[in-house]
Amino acid sequence: MVTMNHLSVEDPDDGSPLLPEAVEAQTPTPVFRRQRAVAKTDSRQFFLSRRENLVFSLVLLIGCYSAILIPAYLPLDRMASVNDDYQQPKDLVLLNRSASLLSSPCQPRWCLNHLKPLACSAGLLDIPVFVQQDKPMPWELSPPLGLQGSEEHLTLALASLPQPGLPASLKGEGSCRRCVVVGNGGVLHGSYLGSHIDQYDIIIRLNNAPVPGFERDAGSHTTIRLTYPEGAPHSANEYKKTTMVALVVFKSLDLDWLISVITKQPLSFWSKLWFWREVVDDIPLGPENFRILHPEIIHKTGQVLQKYTQKQGNMVPTLGASAVVMALQLCDQVSLAGFGYDMQHPQARLHYYETLRMGAMKAQVVHDVSAEKLFLRDLVSAGAVTDLTGAL
Length: 392
What we know:
sialyltransferase cstii, chain A, globular, Lactosylceramide alpha-2,3-sialyltransferase, transmembrane helix, alpha/beta, single chain, exo-alpha-sialidase activity, transmembrane
């Protein structure tokens, strides 16, 4: 008689233990335990999947914010190198024409003789360039078209200038002078005009347009940098080859800034709060290297532009247009480089020194750049000025 106590768990054929699967098969698991195990596994997978989705969503969200915020707050690629795009001049015809112009002798009174046919010529002649102590005058308009309300600030500023008028180096009576007004336009990029620009007698630049690093296209010397406090370059390197800084007055505080820069006495904290952007505290030039642009340059330029626009009231021109009118007073021949906004191509380069695009100009409403382009185009068509970069 065989009892259950003597049953073997060995295989009857070879005496080896049964495989684990076989052992498990001999001890069946209750159905409710199997269901609970499956449910536990599904729950674990569900929570794991949800955690992975959450992590993925966070990474995606951070990536989107980075794509938006980094270019806005850390615009590392806005400053462009002159060697970024062009290894050869982009327009050899313009470059050769510029070289031919410089190889020809200077023509005295060239600008004045070619201005006469223009209807606006009367408003562009005999305008004082810099404010002088010995020629006081009653101001009928407030800055930037005049200096009404800023008389006391002006008196103090002129007292700090040893030579407030036109310097002897720019008078040059009996000699023929050539001017070039270097605009900030992207059309200058890739022009290879730098060595040509440096050959002019008077080189006029605007605001904080950089020179070091852009010599190939923009040249290396500056005779007059036309600017206002918020637009003045902060880097001392920008003034190394500069003869003069001419202040354009937009408010009385601008004259106080000039006094501060000349005397090396810093402005008060409260005064600085009135500037819409941080201003430079020190410019490494002597007092004799500063001037105050006569407001009549701005005023007369605005009056001429009124004939090209549909806007009413006193027009405030850009410093570029004002610099051209200033150059007409100083030189016999005037050339322009880097002028002309191509508003038909919003992806074109706005400035020669950065990657900001032309579409950004649509945001500004202060100046009428279309009217200014028509004005400059008339000057070029009449032969009064020469457009070296061909965008007008």
